[in-house]
Each structure stands twice: as structure tokens, then as C-alpha cells.
Amino acid sequence: MTQGTHDGRPASGGGGRKRRGAPRKRRRGLKITLSVLLILLLAAGGTVYWLYSSLDGNIKGVDIDKALGDDRPEKLPTSGQNLLVLGSDSRAGAENKELGGGGNVSGARSDTAMVVHIPEGRTKAVAVSIPRDTLVTRPECTKADGSAVPSANRVMFNSVYSQVGPACVVKTVEKMSKVRIDHYLEINFAGFKDLVDAIGGVTVDVPQDIHDKSSGLDLTKGPHKLDGTESLAYVRTRHGIGDGSDLGRIGLQQQFLLALLSEVKSQDLLSSPTSTYKIANSATESLTTDDGLASLTSLSKFARSMQGVDPASMETIMLPVAYDKADPNRVVAAQPQADTLWKAIREDATIPESAKKSPATGG
Fold first, then answer.
1. End-to-end Cα separation, the chain, in angstroms
2. Which of 241, 216, 213, 230 is nearest to 24 (CA)?
3. Is there a smaller number of Cβ atoms within 10 Å at the N or the C end of the chain?
4. Nearest to residue 198, comparing CAs of 312, 90, 37?
5. What is the reported pLDDT for 94?
């Protein structure tokens, strides 16, 4: 019998090795969040950010600080900036439901999660992907309605969002990493697709032939320019690469993020305020942030402080994980690699190569 997780969801078909004969799971969300892209975009067009004042109403804010209270990691003087960037698989709205494959899927999960660390000086960045099927200890949290949710062990990471909400995801990440999260950003299916289309597509170098009937993706090895719908399928694909788990597609998501940021960086946004406005509008319509960034003025100010960050210098790392001994379809943080990785980020130090190696690769 397949072992279930703490929250009652079946444990098969998840983040670890794919079992033969296991029923195919419904397609779940995915995608890479483009909030980081929006920040770099606004940095590139910082001198005309005043054009976007009409977009303020697009951005939804969440009061993370109020929800988390004072029980948080200390903010070190040399710890740089840390952003938790989420991609939610919400089917809310007709376009999100269609892009997500339809079906009766309630709520939303944090299908893609990255801790983006920008060191002091802000000339480079590190993005650490947290596999959605990682078993974690969810701390005691408070829902938006004020009700308390007790702590729970062996909860799948991407279920925290649907069970308690985004503030609890932030708190879970802070508890597991001891890294103080300064800001939170989230984007959904429709926002991802529309933003890629507004940019004019993104060229990626596909590492191998991908034929995924679940996502509808059919690509040969080599360079391809993808539109929004194709890009969404590319970063969602699981059955078309690796062992069919979430681990295999994390590499594609990280590759796509760098290609996307490079594409934006290469465009002369200052010479085309109309195009820049169109891209910013696509991003903000599906964007949720913490209250500290929930305006174009705040986003632009933060973005201008990051103008020195070059996408080519961004390092992408998957949180080192190992297959769970009780259930090989789930993963857990691998030690001591994970603790070493988080310690380096907390202290704004160079990440040792040993801390980047994951026993579970999804290959």
C-alpha cells in the first residue's frame, strides 16, 4: 500500500523515483515565477517607471510581517537581500484553468519555489530551487482569518500554500533555512504565459528530445524560440525528461529563467516605453507581493538598486535532497549539504561545491 503524507494526500507519483505501473497523476501547475524578471525589467526601464503609476492597482499585497510576528531569523548586517519567489498553480479564472489543464482542482499550491539571494553590492544573485515534493516540518501558522494551524511533520512542501497560505510558506522556508526572507513574490499560469508573449518569446537550448503527452510538449534537441504557451509546457514538463519526477524539470526551469532574464536584458526597453508598459502590465496583472513591494514605486526603487545584477552571473542551485527512506516518491533535505548551503546564504559567503551536490537527481 502506498504511504500517505501527513495532510492525507497520496504519496505516489511525486518528487522521487517514478514507480512502474503507478497511475498517472493529474497535471499540476508549474511554472517558473517571473517576479524576478519584473524586478530586472523595471530596473532596465527605471527612468520611465512613472509611466506605470496606473498599474499600481494590478498588484496584490500580502501583509507577511503581521502574519509572521517576531519569531523569525535575525537579519544579519551583511546578509544581502533574500526573496521567496513562488509560482502558484491556481486555476482561478478561465485562462488559468485552461492553461493548467482544466479539471476539478481546488485551491492552489506553490508549484515552483525559489529563494533568490542577492548579496551585498548586488552584482550577482543565487537562486535556490526547493523541490515541491520535499517533506518538511510545517511550523505553527496563522491563517488569513486569524485561526491557528498547529505544526505538522512530514508535510509536502507545496501543500503548505493551499493548507495555510503564503505567509506560512515564508515561515516554513525561514524555519528550514534559518534565512530571513525580506520579500515575497508570486505569479500564476496566465501571468507567465502573457509575460513571455509580451516579451516576444524566449529562445532555449533544449538538452534532449522531449515528447510529453501530458503537457503537449514536442521538441527536438537544440535551440527553439518558445511562445508563452510553449514556455509554460516546457517548464511544466515532467514525463518528458528525467525520471518523470519534479527533480528532472527543475533544471529546465532554472535554464529557462536565465534565458528569459537574458532576453529582457538584451531588449532596448528605454527606447520603447509602449513595449515596456505592455510587459509590465502583463506581469503586474498576475503578481502578488508582500506589502513592502506592493506598488510600482516600491518595486521600481528595489529594482533600481539591482541594476548591477547580470543574468549571466546568476547561479542556479537545487536544494540538495535525498529520496525519503520511508517513501522513495518523496524527498527530504540532504545533510550536511543543505545546512551548509543555507549557512553560506545567511552569511553572504561563497557556497562550497560540496553543498550543491544532491543525492537525488531525478535522472
1. 25
2. 213
3. N
4. 37
5. 42
- Structural contact between residues 44 and 300, judged by C-beta atoms closer than 8 angstroms: no
pLDDT of residue 109: 53
CA triplet 38, 295, 260: central angle to 5 degrees?
Answer: 5
HSE-CB of 35 using CA atoms within 13 angstroms: 31
Q: What's the DSSP call for residue 53?
A: G
Q: Cα separation of 68 and 145, whole Å?
A: 14
d(CA 323, CA 134): 9
CA 352 to chain centre: 23
The H-or-E segment that residue 287 falls in is strand 287-290
pLDDT of residue 181: 94
Residue-by-residue DSSP string for 166-234? HHHHHHHHHHHH-PPP-EEEEE-HHHHHHHHHHHT-EEEEESS-EEETTTTEEE-SEEEEE-HHHHHHH
User: For the chain, which ranges sit under pLDDT 50?
Assistant: 1-35, 40, 43-50, 91-107
**166/1 Cα distance (integer angstroms):** 32
Predicted pLDDT of residue 330? 92
Task: Compute the distance between CA of residue 144 and CA of residue 164 in angstroms, rounded to an integer.
Answer: 8
The CA-atom distances, in angstroms, between 258 and each of 34, 102, 143, 253, 267 are 11, 29, 34, 9, 15
Q: Using only C-alpha atoms, what is the Rg of the chain?
A: 19
Residue 281 CA to residue 290 CA, distance in Å, equals 18
Which single residue is written with the C-alpha cell 521567496? 84
Which pLDDT score is estimated for 41? 52
Q: Which residue has the cell 508598459?
A: 277
Reported pTM: 0.76
Element (H or E) spanning 333, and its range? strand 331-333
Enter the C-alpha cell of residue 289.
507581493
Buried b (16+ CB within 10 A) or exposed e, 132-148: bbbbbebbebbeeeeee
Neighbours of 226 (CB within 10 A): 22
